[in-house]
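To the wet lab folks,

You asked to see what we're planning to order before we commit. Fair enough. Below is the target structure as tokens, and below that is the sequence we designed to fit it. If anything looks off to you, flag it before the synthesis order goes out.
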């Protein structure tokens, strides 16, 4: 079952997504729904300068 889930998520990979949409194997509305379903991780982001500062 993990393989099926991995393959399902792979079709939204930006490197494949545009080709799948162009080939009509993936609907643009599916992509939009997937993007809206993603969690907002903005509260957990770090910048490279913050990482550099913490290593000193």
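Sequence we intend to order:
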């Amino acid at each position: 079952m993990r393989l099926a889930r991995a393959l399902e998520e792979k079709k939204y990979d930006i490197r494949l997504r545009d080709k799948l949409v162009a080939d009509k194997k993936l609907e643009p509305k599916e992509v939009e729904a997937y993007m809206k379903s993603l969690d907002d991780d903005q509260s957990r982001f770090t910048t490279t300068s913050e990482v550099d500062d913490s290593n000193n």
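Structural context that might help your review: The chain is about 60% helix and 0% strand. The chain has a mean pLDDT of 86.

Thanks,
Computational group
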